[in-house]
Amino acid sequence: MKCPFCSHPEDKVIDSRTGGAGDVIRRRRECELCGRRFTTYERIEDVLPTVVKKDGGREPFDRKKLIFGARVACIKRPVSIERIEAIADAIEREIQETERREVASSELGERMMVHLRDIDEVAYIRFASVYRSFRDVDEFFAELKKLVKERDG
Fold it and tell me: Model's pTM, two decimal places?
């Protein structure tokens, strides 16, 4: 592993722990040249489905995009990055379990909204407003009313 500080190719592992749902290994490493420490994460590389975009284009599944969209929705909200990463992990596992070769980007967005609705309603509305491309206040208000109705049962 190349040191991110001095680019030296040799390091030693100081500590290893499993993380997440047991599908990630966190390793603390120390560079043998500069002595600085850094953390790496190892995960099994599964074959993930291709994402089919709204315009019909296709691209490889990118977990970072899920995390980015959720982070934007959760700005100034009491949702930790660990929680956002756990949601991304859950969605990734869910789509792997379908064993399909392709998944629509709309399905990924819907899955993210389900998780966000459960942890923070404001983040959910923020994500939904961008994801569903609300054209005006009436669409935004309709989504709010639906959320309140579901919550109050």
Answer: 0.63
